[in-house]
Specification:
The chain is an alpha+beta fold. The chain contains 16 helices and 18 strands.
Length: 504
């Protein structure tokens, strides 16, 4: 009756013409149980517990949700994820195969740069985020969405990488980060809370116990973090690795490969013994993953410095103020695991944050420190091969400058600045340096190692006659005397004037 009276009043008073009233808005105003939409949000969706709960929670907050799932090479049942998003009420679902552009637009520039963060990490997770974020923004613009959202934690690097990408490519966008919203993270202080919420809302929940660590997988690598890996002294369990075989169990016969490069990126890979070759970017990378995984190449266990100042054995699974069980890393989990040689009963009830954090103090000296492991088989093979052909074809001083740029580029990727003007500038400088990086590298992959066997290039700067100890060539050894004396002037004067040459 109330709605009917309002409708009648509008007509009688003629204060507004119905023809000018938005039909959708009127429907929301007059239909029982409906509220006005706050707008459309594109959610980076995985189909897992967290983002499934976030999808439903966003709808409860009044948003129309578009689910976006990127295929970047992870093992995933995409049909099941699509069905689940439909069942949960997503307005639209986009499942995008980004594997080829991930390789060509993101992995290849990293290969050209020899991109390695803090000397060891090949940036498999970090380089994937601008790829995912770019497509998320494209969908948001296409669908007229004012918001984007993600399930990244409030302590990790990914929140920074996703959001800097979105702001760079869609300056007007608004970002909803649930794990930084007190209303959300105070309500969901552990996996148990998420499970209870899911059961009440009809969200399908995992029926098998979750592994005592978290995992992030894509075409380039798999990272393992949190839980029992939080303790930097703990060894990674033997059954943890999914992408690579234990080197001890790898074949007793090596695979010999020839990788051909053009402009600093692989254009063809050939298995010499099997006479098998691949020549498309995606096929090349998949094949190198296969060979590297077969021989246990690319395993590392590291502690690194996060963007926000924490030391990390890769990552942490905490949600802002939410801490982790020191045994399994999953607050509210109910299954036991072995921790420090003893059976550790994981929390069956939610504990207050302070109590949990005190328990974490038994795990490491820094409650914010976390530990993790990487597998990057194909990327490791390419790094070794590219370093070799680059040294063979690049001028010494150019390469010295390029090495410095590579360190900066790696830091930009890690810290989420792929789409910054400084990263764009460095990326173009590195691409320029790769114009003559072409040729072939032969290598052996065997029991966790990559051995360079030889190389050839039409752009080689190697002059066999010039460097030979058996042929003088176009070089006068007497010239070395003047070169040495000139370089010695500075050293002589330094030690003479500061008295360091005195015998003491």
């Amino acid at each position: 009756m109330k709605h009917a009276a309002l409708f009648q009043s509008l007509r009688q008073r003629k204060t507004a013409s119905l023809s000018h009233i938005n039909h959708s808005l009127l429907l929301h105003l007059l239909t029982p149980g409906l509220i006005m939409s706050k707008g459309t949000v594109v959610l980076a969706y995985s189909g897992g517990l967290d983002t499934s709960c976030i999808l439903v929670w966003l709808k409860e907050q009044g948003y129309d949700v578009i689910a976006f799932l990127a295929n970047i090479g992870q093992e995933e049942d995409f049909d099941a994820a699509h069905k689940k998003a439909v069942d949960l009420g997503a307005k639209k679902i986009f499942i995008e195969d980004l594997r080829s552009e991930f390789v060509e637009d993101f992995i290849w520039p990293a290969v050209q740069a020899n991109a390695v963060y803090e000397d060891r990490y090949l940036l498999g997770t970090a380089v994937a985020r601008p790829c995912i974020g770019r497509r998320q923004v494209e969908i948001a613009r296409k669908e007229g969405a004012q918001f984007v959202s993600h399930g990244a934690t409030g302590k990790g690097n990914d929140q920074i990488r996703f959001e800097l990408t979105c702001y760079a490519l869609y300056p007007e966008v608004k970002i909803i980060a649930p794990w930084r919203i007190p209303e959300f993270y105070n309500r969901f202080q552990g996996r148990k809370d998420l499970m209870e919420y899911a059961q009440k809302r009809g969200i399908p929940v995992p029926v098998t116990p979750k592994a005592p660590w978290s995992m992030d997988a894509n075409l380039m690598h798999i990272s393992y973090e949190s839980g029992i890996l939080e303790n930097p002294k703990s060894h990674g369990p033997a059954d943890l690795y999914l992408m690579t075989k234990n080197p001890e169990d790898a074949p007793n016969t090596p695979d010999v490969l020839e990788i051909e490069f053009g402009n600093g990126v692989p254009v063809k890979v050939t298995n010499i013994k099997e006479s098998q070759s691949k020549d498309s970017p995606l096929e090349i990378f998949l094949y190198l993953n296969e060979i590297g995984g077969k021989h246990g190449v690319g395993r590392i266990d590291i502690v690194e410095n996060r963007s926000i100042g924490m030391k990390s054995r890769e990552g942490v699974n905490c949600r802002v103020c939410r801490a982790l069980c020191p045994g399994c890393g999953l607050p509210g989990a109910s299954y036991p695991v072995i921790y420090s040689g003893q059976a550790h009963p994981c929390f069956s009830e939610r504990r207050d944050g302070l109590s949990v954090r005190r328990l974490m103090a038994n795990v490491s000296s820094d409650e914010n420190a976390a530990c993790g492991i990487y597998e990057t088989p194909g990327g490791t093979i390419l790094l070794k091969a590219h370093l070799d052909i680059e040294t063979f074809t690049m001028d010494k001083e150019v390469r010295r400058i390029k090495q410095g740029l590579s360190i900066k580029f790696s830091e930009f990727i890690y810290n989420g600045f792929w789409y910054s003007p400084e990263c764009d500038f460095v990326r173009h400088c590195i691409a320029k340096s790769q114009e003559n990086v072409q040729g072939k590298v032969q290598l052996s992959v065997f029991k966790g190692q990559v051995y360079i066997l030889g190389r050839e290039s039409p752009k080689s700067l190697y002059n066999e006659e010039l460097v030979s100890m058996d042929v003088q060539g176009d070089y006068d050894p007497c010239d070395a005397s003047g070169f040495i004396r000139i370089n010695a002037v500075r050293l002589r004067e330094h030690h003479r004037l500061q008295g360091l040459s005195d015998n003491k």
